[in-house]
Amino acid sequence: MVEVAPVAAQSAPTSAPQKPKPEEGHHVFAENRKGVSYDTLFGPYADGATRIVVTDPYIRYFYQIRNMMEFVEMVIRRKAPEDQVAIHLVTGPHDGDIQKQRELLESITEACTGSGVDFTWAFDTSGNAHARDIVTDTGWKIVLDRGLDIFQAPLRRDGFNLGDRLQDHRMLKGFYVTYVRQ
After folding, report:
1. Within a domain: residue 109?
2. Are 91 and 60 a contacting pair, CB within 8 Å?
3. Three-state DSSP class for 21?
4. What's the CATH code of the domain at 124?
5. Where are the beta strands (DSSP E) in the chain?
6. Could you give the CA distance from residue 134 to residue 156 in angstroms, rounded to a whole number?
7. Which pLDDT tens digit goes with each residue over 24-50?
8. Is residue 17 part of a domain?
9. Is there a domain that residue 8 lies in?
């Protein structure tokens, strides 16, 4: 017969871990840095929002649209299952292949079905759009000089590269972000 020693009872933690509070400020990120993700950059500012507008006239190529999908995924992961969030993208048309751009953006809309996120998008056809920002209905404006395009192209290692799956393992392009309370 095997005797089992009694296990000492562990006391429950007295408080939940604190989430970082969003604060106004300007931050510059150096080229080739790692350890940054959409979750750390945007998550605290998106928390509690029911409407988020992303303005980026350069969501045109596959990798840029993939970045938009990763932003949507971040919102889905952070929101409560019962919450509904509307994310609207305003971007510029890709003159080289507008049909492919439309198909990829619509694929995000379809992927969001049943997720609690309503993704919509529209083209700004003024031809004057350049600024990139994210605005939430909770009063935050996030100004981005590069928009969502903050990561360097991934190194290809037959699919076995952490940066392909985890943003904080990707190398950054140099960029800045400014958080403004409206």
Report:
1. yes
2. yes
3. coil
4. 3.30.870.30
5. 25-29, 51-55, 85-91, 117-123, 133-136, 140-144, 175-181
6. 30
7. 999 999 999 999 999 999 999 999 999
8. no
9. no
Strand partners, 123: 91
Specify the pTM: 0.85
Q: pLDDT tier at 7 (50, 70, 90 boundaries)?
A: very low
pLDDT tens track for 95-143: 889 999 999 999 999 999 999 999 999 999 887 878 899 999 999 999 9
Q: What is the extent of the structural domain holding 125?
A: 25-181
Of 26-35, 81-90, 99-108, 159-168, least confident by mean pLDDT is 159-168
Task: Please tell me whether residue 92 adopts helix, strand or coil conformation.
Answer: coil
The verdict on residue 86 lying in a domain is yes
**Could you tell me which of 135, 134, 139, 138 has the C-alpha nearest to residue 150?**
134
| Residue found by looking up tokens 């985890």 in the block | 166
Q: What angle do CA 86, 147, 142 make, to 5 degrees?
A: 65
Number of domains in the chain: 1
Any idea which residue has 């979750």 for tokens? 39
In the chain, the largest separation of any two C-alpha atoms, in whole Å, equals 81
Collapsing DSSP to helix, strand or coil, 163 comes out as helix
User: How many other CB atoms are found less than 10 A from the CB of residue 133?
Assistant: 18
How is residue 89 written in tokens? 């993208």
